[in-house]
Amino acid sequence: MLAMSPTLSLTAVSLWRWDAERGRERHLLRDVDWTVRPGEHWALLGANGAGKTTLMNIAGAVAHPSDGTVDVLGQRLGRVDLRELRERIGLVEARTGRAFRGRMTAADVVLTGATGSIALQRHRLDSDDCARAAALLARFGCAALADRPYDACSQGERQRVLLARALMRRPSLLLLDEPATGLDLPGREALLAAVATIAEQEPETATVTVTHHVEELPSSTTHALLLRDGVAIAAGPAHETIRGDLLSACFGTPVRVDRVGGRWLARAEAAW
Ligand SMILES: Nc1ncnc2c1ncn2[C@@H]1O[C@H](COP(=O)(O)OP(=O)(O)OP(=O)(O)O)[C@@H](O)[C@H]1O
Description:
- The chain has ten helices and twelve strands.
- By secondary structure, it is an alpha/beta fold.
- The protein has a domain of 77 residues.
- The chain has a six-stranded mixed sheet, with helices on both faces.
- A hairpin with a 2-residue loop joins strand 11 and strand 12.
- It is globular.
- The structure holds adenosine-5'-triphosphate.
- Adenosine-5'-triphosphate binds next to helix 1.
């Protein structure tokens, strides 16, 4: 049987920028190799400044590398229209949520995902779009929020609304940039439960979740890439990479990691 072609394939990817303070180029990413296949759910872990956002910008067809090759959804960056490619990529990040103002309801915000716009373009929507929006809200425990102004939703509810929005077009790749940051415990748990449904309901979709905290990874996480100073120090199946020794190297401090009920807990080694 032929293997499915990768969702993302990065080979020897480096990205550098001019560092005016030092008067020389500085590597934000160095020689990163990374392959994400359909149905895989990756964690992208690293300390502040490790290069996670930079790598997500490349994976999301927002930025080009300085060197190396990048194939996103089978298209080589540098040879394709990035805007067309981005239409097949779902994105949940804090910035997206801040764009929705006024009296837009939660359902309206989800529906904007069908057109990939910030404004609601009702004339471009059909009954299937409305049905999918309602089904996604229900699936994420947000059915009662449909008519509530988005501004009036709690932060946790908003994140689930944004997740529903990102799934409207059944993206092949979904990027989640620190989706649980700032959520309280029930909000975080509801969001992670919602993310975990993707493995079953959208089995071809690959996801990448950026976080500093392994506690914020959904139980559906299958793989992890650990970045330190722009270098991928480990990449592979979660049970081989989300480990104390590798996370210690990644964060530069001794860390102990436990797996409980399919999730991960990390603490500084000294605290145990
Ligand atoms: N345009 C740029 N020019 C120069 N340096 C940059 C540029 N963009 C980012 N950097 C630097 O590159 C490094 C990696 O940044 P990046 O935002 O990718 O890290 P991160 O892992 O996402 O960090 P955080 O967890 O704090 O969000 C940082 O030291 C940052 O200051």
